[in-house]
Amino acid sequence: MKKLFSILSSALLLSVLLASCGTGSVSYNLGDVLTAVDAAVKIDNPKDISQDDVIYDLGVTFENVEEFAGKTSNTNGEAGYIIVIKAKQGKADTVKAELETARDGKAEALASYPEFATAAAITKSGRVVVKGDYVLLAIGADKSIAEKDGAEKAYANVDTAIADAFK
Q: pLDDT grade, residue 1 (50/70/90)?
């Protein structure tokens, strides 16, 4: 009887441990993700993104945002924007769509000025990545690579930084 009780107790304990390990969602420190991606994007003359920027510049419905961290370029005509948003549960796809719309609008605005052609191409190729409840917008890449080989190739380091930040 003792042996049976020990086996059942062990099985119960193991099932509790396995259940608790599998149900949690991954959590990220927004500042750490921002710093990792910023090292690859290298925003010119950066400034922090405010709540008003999230709402009015990016068009994100703030009721869907739990927290955010971001930087943008304070230089006119520069392609530089990084924001990491922890969306409220179930709202990541909505936030992703809003950030894609913002990225496309910024690219279109820059494209209307010939002197900002490289910035427009870099902006158009900007990344919007979802990882669980986290949504990241990264706009910015090495201009010299973009001018020589195209904006997509210029994002290689950014893509690596995003992947590493969301491990």
A: low
Identity of the residue numbered 18: L
CB 106 within 8 A of CB 81: yes
Residue 148 confidence (pLDDT): 86
Q: How much is the pTM?
A: 0.82
Instruction: For the chain, give the DSSP string.
Output: -HHHHHHHHHHHHHHHHHHHHHSPPP---HHHHHHHHHHHH--SSEEEPPHHIIIIIS---GGGEEEEEEEEE-STT---EEEEEEEPTT-HHHHHHHHHHHHHHHHHHHHTSGGGHHHHHHHHT-EEEEETTEEEEEE---HHHHHHH-HHHHTHHHHHHHHHHT-
